[in-house]
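Schema walk-through. Below, the input block comes first and the output block second. Nothing else is stored per chain. Lengths vary across the set, and this one has 360 residues.
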Amino acid sequence: MNDSLKQHWPWYAAILAALALLWLLGPILMPFIVGASLAYLGDPLVDRLETWRLSRTLAVSLVFVVLALLGLLVLLLLIPALYHQLQMLIQNMPGWLEWIQNTGLPRLGIHLPAGFSLDPEGLKAIITQHWSEAGGLAKTLWTKLSSSGIVLVALIANLTLIPIVAFYLLRDWDHLVAWIRDMIPPRHLPQVTELARETDDVLGSFIRGQLTVMAALAVLYSAGLALAGLKLALIIGTMAGLLSFVPYLGFAVGFVAAVIAMYAQSQELLPLLWVAIVFGIGQMLESAWLTPNLVGDKIGLHPVTVIFALMAGGQLFGFIGILVALPVSAVLAVLLRHAKNHWLASPLYRNDSSPQDPLP
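--- output ---
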């Protein structure tokens, strides 16, 4: 054990204890992580309002009121349309299933097993035939739901806490940043400041840009599919836009769902061409303009890296892991770029006994 480790081991132990505590407190961190993310996104807007000689608290309150009104307006506009389309989906589902069984699948050379059908009577027979298994499954499911009432209460409490946490963190954001800066040893402050500046640039570009891309694609797909005559345009278009944060996933899922829905609705091939045109335009617009201009290439995350980060985050930390996987990956990308520069400038890499300055 070297002298530095002997001298500073209490601090290293404290850091490890803090990380272990965060691990144990993972199930209750969701409102704080989401609230901190909202505070981070809103800080530049609040800072701009402060230049108009508004107090920090008043600026934060104004931002919250405006965002709440915008969110309420979006809900008032979207919920009735979504409800109408969901009603239509439920009403048309028996007819669509029957058409898939009698027309769609036979055209593809696929035939259902004997005694199996997708019409209401066939589904009823299947349920009746397996009623004992279904009853046992329903009983087990009901038991779990009944015993998880406290989980539902915790979820509602967490959702309620998000705006409260976001408000207080946003109000005191500058003080928190200053406190963290004061805790950094002065000799490391220039390097940490540079890393923080680059990380902030990458995160700001990624989060704000990606949310804008998702919203733009949701509007584009929904409007395009509606013009093409698809009755479920809003549901499928919104789903495709929201899933677009995973490379090609939103396009693939939305396109397949739209093709199936349009074919079941019209039972003709020509409308499928309009669906393909809508998603083709959306994909080209995303690749050629939306992502390059709104997100940029500062993050440098390969599509496979994005997919792996989401799967790894979900495996390790559940929903919270999925939520923070891409921002954490963006930060790690910045750190890895700096680590690569130091490695390329190290004596071990250069096979040189004299140390060199890190590459820019």
